[in-house]
């Protein structure tokens, strides 16, 4: 019988399909636990366990009960919302994993700031503001300097994050974030973290992303991504990731040390981590360390091969490359992450930004973008007639462009050139006008 791995994920998502394909290649049975209605008996006919992200206790009970019938050999979590459930399940089933308290801290920006501060890591000045304090929302005051950044406590992907350079911009940003956190889709998450916001001083510097795996408390860095586009606001939409980093060995060593100290401060122990940091002359500022892998389709920018020091790699694997999903599935079943290393080539991804709000119609130039030297794939993930919403309110991208080359500079150039080939058609959003009752005129019959 093949090994069985539980994957906690949203009902729909690119990563769920990617993990399914990876599991099939490895001969692993994948069991899904997803946020779907638990009153309908297996509506997708995929044998998934129905859980509700807002109800941790019942979700854990449902998974543990299902595991008695279909025993599992390991588990993985995709996305921020199920990380705490996954941590509790790992503990209940006796698997190595991130402790529940650490998983909860990692997805809560205020608690993360407090843990990093208490551990002596550099952090900006920060303060939280409750949405229940309407007088503070209308007249937000703080002793910290401008520019400032306002952000939600528990949304991801830079959603809701805004920079303010003066008191008026600050007031408008707080009001805008407050409105977002009270929108139906956010309130539907039933997360108490959405009842407050975080205000902190803006950190200048270059930003980096780190992909890694914790193994028994030790951080194994898989990749450091440069973010070559400046992220200085007013919003903080990520666009390009390129690896290996061009920061240089001294800065990379400081980044790895800071992320390792941050994971220890938060209490993360075993499983995937995705971290973000900013580097300037004052040091490495860790922005967040999430207890899950990189999101969306971005994992396609990473390929791995057996490490030179690994002497126990199976002969069948010695000359093969593996995806991040395959590596994480192996690790979920107990394999050490240091047996694998990133490929030698440079690689990267562009998360195609949404240029403006409106109804998505089409994208021309995809074939031309795909034909650019070093581009390996172009994926338009937005659907025709979909309402596109850019940051800070939006929560998705228009699609992804991937490239691979000898050098990071060639990768970055290929991504930018391919993006320039795209002609994105977005129509104005249709809005219903207030209706006027029709009046019957006898003269018209």
Could you describe the 3D structure shown?
This protein has 445 residues and is an alpha+beta fold. The chain has helices spanning 14-26, 56-69, 83-93, 100-106, 109-118, 134-138, 167-181, 184-187, 249-266, 324-332, 366-370, 408-420, and strands at 4-9, 29-35, 49-51, 74-77, 126-130, 148-152, 162-164, 196-201, 206-215, 218-226, 240-243, 271-280, 283-290, 303-306, 322-323, 340-342, 346-352, 358-364, 375-380, 387-388, 399-405, 423-427. A four-stranded parallel β-sheet has the order 3-2-1-4, with helices on both faces. α2 (56-69) packs across α3 and α3 (83-93) packs antiparallel against α4 (100-106).
Oligomer: single chain
Total helical segments: 12
Class per helix and strand makeup: alpha+beta
Integer average pLDDT: 91
What tags apply to this protein structure?
28% helix; single chain; 445 residues; 4-stranded antiparallel β-sheet; 22 strands; 4-stranded parallel β-sheet; alpha+beta
Give the topology.
Elements lengths: L3 E6 L4 H13 L2 E7 L13 E3 L4 H14 L4 E4 L5 H11 L6 H7 L2 H10 L7 E5 L3 H5 L9 E5 L9 E3 L2 H15 L2 H4 L8 E6 L4 E10 L2 E9 L13 E4 L5 H18 L4 E10 L2 E8 L12 E4 L15 E2 H9 L7 E3 L3 E7 L5 E7 L1 H5 L4 E6 L6 E2 L10 E7 L2 H13 L2 E5 L18
Parallel strand pairs: 1-2, 1-4, 2-3
Antiparallel strand pairs: 5-8, 6-7, 6-8, 9-10, 9-12, 11-17, 12-13, 14-15, 14-16, 17-21, 18-20, 18-22, 19-21
Helix pairs in contact: 2-3, 3-4
